Amino acid sequence: MESYITAAHYDLISPDGRISSLTKTEHQTLMAEVIIENISPHFVGFSLDHSQVFFNLKSTLAQLGVNAVGIKYALDEKRKSAEVSIELVALSPIAIAMLEHLTVGAYIGKLFAKDDRRRVRDPDYLFRMFGREDRKGKPLLSLGGLREQGDLIVEKIQGRTIAFLALKDGVIEYESTIFSLIPTIGKALCTPDFKTRGLLQFHQKWTSEKSRLIEKNNILLVKTAPLHIRTVFGKVAEDLLPKGYNHTTASVLQPDTMASGDIYELFGNSSQIIDDIPLEFYTLEPHREYVFFSDRDQLQASLENKQTLFNAFDTAPEPKDHLAAVFIVKGNQLLNLKKEDWVIRPPYKHEFPGLNYPSRQVHSIEKYIETQPSYPFLKAIEDGQITSQGILLSRYFPSPLLKRLLLSERVQLSLKQIYFQIPSHDHDQYFSHEDRSLMSDLAKFAVHIFWADRNSGKLLRYVLKPEKDTGMFVPVDLIETFRKATVFGVYGSNLLEGDFEKELKAFLNGIIEMKNYISHPLLAAPLALLTGGGPGAMEVGNRVAKNLGLLSCANIVDFMHKESSVIHEQKQNPYIDAKMTYHLDRLVERQAEFYLDFPIFLMGGIGTDFEYTLEEVRRKVGSAPLTPIMLFGPESYWREKVTSRFQNNLHSGTIKGSEWVSNCFYCIQKASQGLEVFKRFFNGELAIGKNGPIYEAGFFTVPDSWH
């Protein structure tokens, strides 16, 4: 795959070939043996019958009246070379002079593979390119000027798309000075990269009053409007020329044709005036087609089927712990992936010198970036080798050190979606802070990120919560629910399920019923419930949410691989729809990303104490809205956990001006008590905030009957 995306030539053509021997057979004919070397291993002609491969003559020679007929083709895929026997025929006096100055070593043409599978059959394939530009602002297809369609008639004939280019009145003829240029042309052809065709125009003249008729023993040069073609190969459709007309074998227009492709060389025997040139078209390699993601109907349809994506990942080469990536631009490519299509890299560890050694640090990071399997594709997009928009499949979420490339202008415009199977090679199912930062940036640039999660069997998309710089992986059909949802959250012990499931279910059912008779923005939205995703109280919360049809979410932290820790949370519960995972090094940040509208606290230990304090601080500093927080359980339990600390702060004066925070917390034992709190809140009747009362217990205990 890497050699494919960095190939110097398109896969339907070879490099130019040079003459290895010349034999004069007649006054107007030479036999030439042509050697072509360094052919791309992906040249389609290697796999085709030789009848579908032909020698395309340099247009310089054709415009001088030379034609070439391939007699014998010998292609050697192993050596990436070809030998072609060619008959060179002079069709004009100028051409006869040109043959006299052709020498061994001259580069005179290349092979073109007429792969029928690559013919453009639907005219819409061409029409969609009009008015579109490449990244440099150059038109993808135009005739007669930038972004113009000009006199271009496109029809579907015999199962192929044919464009008829209208010819201008008159013909091109040569001044007599052309003969003095012939020796120079002969020498210039021995330099493979020298552009010889431009020299001819200094000796050509346009005769507008002359009829477009073939003259005996001469070449007829006709002209169309300037053609810009970037998206396909064009080829003169010889069989659709008027009877008696032939075109030279310089009949292929390459995809780098810009403001040229406007002179055509005809010969034959006819008394009929020719009016247009018929062209047929062949597609480029998919990644070079300049095709927009929005045009790939089959690809988009395939991506809607999660099993298609799981199957695609199954084609990634082993071993499974190796890094692997592939760039996909069309549906057939996704449906027929092979292991050879992937770029695979061993998961080497890289030690960076550190910021104390900036030069070495930069060098080490650059070397690391180049070892990533996504790098060849991103670099090819940067370099213009990949021009079609597409998606990236990566076994592991791409390294954050690729951020510069991923967010570069060219890549950001071409890379529409990223799919991965495993969050991290080092941390398995858990994302680092840098991973999440990269996800957020990509999402803001409209690069969608999908997790093909084998554990849950779901396809999840990373979605940012509006007005909050955080996101989660959400099932595709629940994205809008997540974006709009009012979020309740359950904090509590991972060890104790408690006996609150019945009351929690009754409480959430009551909130759902309130939506029918209380008008409030937070009630008008869908409802979601968020936990830490583990066992115990968290599992109960997710289970209740799932059973009630609420969006069940989890922020899951990695507590493994810490020798000094005593952890029970690691097991994830099975009732989760949407999730985000966190590597332990950023525990506080994980808590900050809960962004709950309505927290609910159950009995819990050290983690619950930590979460309680954070919710308290959020309300004090105004980073969270003033909404009621439920403390579910016996009043005595919450007095032992909360009151002594609150009163210590209160009496010492360390929370002066913030004592009101106590009116955000409400101790309840029954769902009915909590529902009464929320009725008052939604109706604007709850005494909460800076102007509310101060409760010396640190919270308000809701009575069974609150009046």
Can you put this structure into words, describing what you see?
- The chain is of the alpha/beta class and 707 residues long.
- The chain has 22 helices and 34 strands.
- The chain folds into four domains: 116 residues, Elongation Factor Tu (Ef-tu), domain 3; 121 residues, Deoxyuridine 5'-Triphosphate Nucleotidohydrolase, Chain A; 179 residues, Cytidine Deaminase, domain 2 (3-Layer(aba) Sandwich), CATH 3.40.140; 228 residues, Rossmann fold.
- Helix content is 27%, strand content 27%.
- It has an eight-stranded parallel sheet with strand order 30-29-28-27-31-32-33-34, sandwiched between helices. It has a seven-stranded mixed sheet with strand order 21-20-22-23-24-25-26.
- The protein is elongated.
- The termini are far apart.
